[in-house]
């Protein structure tokens, strides 16, 4: 059996002596879409940053396709990060650059592609996210939903094998939330990627996930399919589903 796409082994992470992750063990298989839910400040976004190497744990191993990335230097991490696309909570677009220039940025930084090849890749990613014709627009001219889609186009520009989504539907109206959910499912199917989604939105989690993990007290306390989570007779799960967890 091949190694999981992502695996946490006894991972510990704290900030200012406050424990965030406490011996976390969790594996995500290749091709899965796993959503991590949990209360505010519990460590969901920290988990994403650990996966991409933006943070390092105090102890434990974080394996990406079987390779422990914890001991890697910043230069060595570049190779790993090319496998991973990330959609940040606020989209994190460069406001001074056009849509096309935002998508081109990682291609110019990390590949030897010609300008013609870069242009073709920009057009391809915009088609995938349903934004044909938007390449010359400025981020300030885009709606919240369109900004999220541009962020996704940039995240897939380097053809990653893993995509991380940090609160992809936060701040969106119901119609745009549904479009982003459909897009995540569509990307998983078309690109055959492994996806990790952090969200407070249980409706989104149930729609897009193969499995849902509930992060609590520094560990994945409960994990299961959407159906299993929906039926789980555990107080913490019921509280979160019913919206009573902060």
UniProtKB/TrEMBL annotation:
Highest taxon of source: Bacteria
Keywords: ATP-binding, Nucleotide-binding, Transport
Residues spanning the signal sequence: none
Name assigned to this protein: ABC transporter ATP-binding protein
PANTHER family xrefs: INTERMEMBRANE PHOSPHOLIPID TRANSPORT SYSTEM ATP-BINDING PROTEIN MLAF, PROTEIN TRIGALACTOSYLDIACYLGLYCEROL 3, CHLOROPLASTIC
Organism of origin: Candidatus Methylomirabilis limnetica
SMART domains on file: AAA
Limits of the ABC transporter domain: 6-242
Molecular functions per Gene Ontology: ATP binding; ATP hydrolysis activity
Xref: Gene3D superfamilies: P-loop containing nucleotide triphosphate hydrolases
